[in-house]
Design brief:
It is built from eight helices and ten strands. By secondary structure, it is of the alpha/beta class. The chain has one domain: Aminopeptidase, CATH 3.40.630. The chain is globular and about 55 Å long. The protein starts with 17 loop residues before the first helix and ends with a helix.
């Protein structure tokens, strides 16, 4: 029997207080540049799209402008499509998948959709390759009224005026080995509960909304991504990360009850992507390509449904 070492911050069984959060924060190190990796790409798109600053995070000594890319030919009668990435900053292909889609594919849909891309919702965490913000809060459990996470609150303000008009929202994520080695143990320690190890799925999968399942939409995305990288199989219990697999590569969560990003609008079609960059069967480049394929397939499905309605 293997005995797991306790997380190095806090007392087992006791939730963190401000002292433990401060200790955790002091250990966080900046590894990469939001300005270089994200803002420079967004700036390069200004000649083709409208670029808006929808908020600003003041995490002294750093300040982070929150940027979104929008269709220039905006028409109210067109389908509204929302693409988000980097809600968890460490999930790299979500950020770069959103940016690459905007760079290389978004123009294909010009005049057919109203597009909003928020490529890096959590820039502080992007730079530190972390899941949380500086207050040890998970933005992707914080999309709710009076959110304590500034990243989540800012994105909700961005979509407030058109949240009822959004037809599709795709939120780009990853599941990594560090989920098991660092982030889930840290979460258990923060909340004062026992850490229970789980299996990291090897491959791409989707999270549908259990309150509004759209199986045909999910399978259209899975079919497109399967041409780029492998789809995660169910484990021996017929599950992925503890949730029942309802169709190949698809599980369901209650988006709004859990405060997930994909639940912030009234969109009929919603999904959260998850790709596994640590797999020996894929590469970082394939993971980005898989995210792009997912976005394109999701939009194509919506346009086909609109044409047929």
């Amino acid at each position: 029997m293997t005995t797991l070492a306790p997380y190095p911050i806090g007392t087992p069984g006791v939730p963190w207080g401000s002292a433990e959060v401060a200790t955790w924060l002091a250990k966080q190190t900046r590894h990469r540049s939001y300005e270089k990796d994200v803002l420079s790409v967004v700036d390069s798109l200004r000649s083709r799209y409208d670029v808006v600053e929808y908020g600003r995070l003041d995490y002294s000594p750093e300040t982070y402008p929150l940027m979104a890319i929008k269709s220039r030919q905006w028409r109210d009668e067109l389908p509204y499509v929302l693409v988000t990435g980097g809600v968890h900053g460490y999930e790299t292909s979500g950020v770069h998948g959103a940016l690459r889609f905007a760079e290389q594919h978004a123009s294909t849909y010009e005049g057919r959709i109203n597009l909003i891309v928020a490529p890096c919702v959590s820039p502080w965490a992007y730079e530190r390759i972390h899941r949380w913000n500086p207050h040890a809060l998970d933005p992707n459990r914080s999309f709710r009224k009076d959110s304590p996470a500034r990243e989540s609150a800012a994105l909700m303000r961005l979509v407030e005026d058109f949240r009822e008009s959004v037809m599709m929202h795709i939120d780009l994520h990853e599941t990594t080995d560090s989920d098991e080695s660092e982030f889930r143990p840290a979460l258990a320690a923060r909340d004062g509960v026992a850490f229970e190890p789980d299996e990291v799925p090897d491959g791409f999968y989707l999270v549908d909304d259990s309150e509004n399942p759209q199986p045909a939409f999910q399978q259209a995305v899975i079919a497109a991504v399967a041409k780029v990288t492998h789809i995660a199989p169910a484990d021996c219990n017929g599950q992925i990360i503890g949730s029942t697999v309802v169709a190949p590569g698809v599980i369901e969560y209650s988006m709004r009850k859990l405060g997930l990003c994909a639940g912030i609008t009234e969109a009929r079609y919603t999904t959260t992507t998850e790709v596994y960059p640590d797999s020996p069967r894929t590469s970082p480049e394939q993971c980005i390509a898989a995210q792009v394929a997912a976005v394109c397939a999701a939009i194509d499905f919506v346009l086909a449904e609109t044409a047929n309605s």
